[in-house]
Amino acid sequence: MRAFLRIEQRGALATVTLNRPKVRNALNSELSTALTRTFHRLAGKARVVVLRGEGPAFCAGADIEEMQRLTEADFDTQRAQAMALQQMFQAIGNFPGVTIARVHGAAIGGGAGLAAVCDIAIAAEEAFFAFSEVRIGLIPATIAPWVVQKVGLGTARALFVTGERITATEALRIGLVQQVAMPNALDEAIERKVEAILQCGPEAIAAVKRLLLHLQGFSPATFPMAETADITVFYLIERRMSAEAREGFRAFLEKRRPSFHETLP
């Protein structure tokens, strides 16, 4: 399993590389399980994780050969594979630090889902995306919640029912990615983003990610405002009372860097 992933740590930054370049880093059961275990293991050990792909593509989605075999499998086998994939996305989505997808080349199906589940996606200008499952009679079921969170239901619907390819520029416009860079400037753009993140309180980042999960699906028209107030007030008070916030306030008043600021070695 380790051969499918390469993991490097540089201070508070971990880089996780999908390492199946011959199949454009297609996601099979072994790779999905390895990613799940890796993100669980990195929780608390890395403040930022950059997810990237080896070779000419970020990730071409599900492993077609494995998917073809599964069409003949029984229900329990099908369910185990689907749950492993779901657990992988859950592990990335619930990671307490910041996740950044470094996207180049193709990000298809589950590969586009990896861009969606990460907190931030930064794409090379030549990258392209597609949710092409319907073109082979499948649907992007496991990744759908994460894509809808990023781009909204209406845009996800249009992408899912056509399977059409979109450019990095279009992905930026709809919110699937948050930044586009020239291919030779992609790593520099990611480094700048990592440095900015390391100036923030890691506990505050984890807390705001939990808050956003709590407010998932919130609509002022349908969500009880009293319940919303309870959630947001709790998080605000919890942060104000934290040692991290006290350190941040003291550092601001004393015109110094707070102790949680880090720089890359």
Automatic annotation (TrEMBL):
<dbReference type="Pfam" id="PF00378">
    <property type="entry name" value="ECH_1"/>
</dbReference>
<keyword id="KW-0456">Lyase</keyword>
<dbReference type="InterPro" id="IPR001753">
    <property type="entry name" value="Enoyl-CoA_hydra/iso"/>
</dbReference>
<comment type="similarity">
    <text>Belongs to the enoyl-CoA hydratase/isomerase family.</text>
</comment>
<dbReference type="InterPro" id="IPR051683">
    <property type="entry name" value="Enoyl-CoA_Hydratase/Isomerase"/>
</dbReference>
<dbReference type="GO" id="GO:0004490">
    <property type="term" value="F:methylglutaconyl-CoA hydratase activity"/>
</dbReference>
<dbReference type="InterPro" id="IPR029045">
    <property type="entry name" value="ClpP/crotonase-like_dom_sf"/>
</dbReference>
<protein>
    <submittedName>
        <fullName>Enoyl-CoA hydratase/carnithine racemase</fullName>
        <ecNumber>4.2.1.18</ecNumber>
    </submittedName>
</protein>
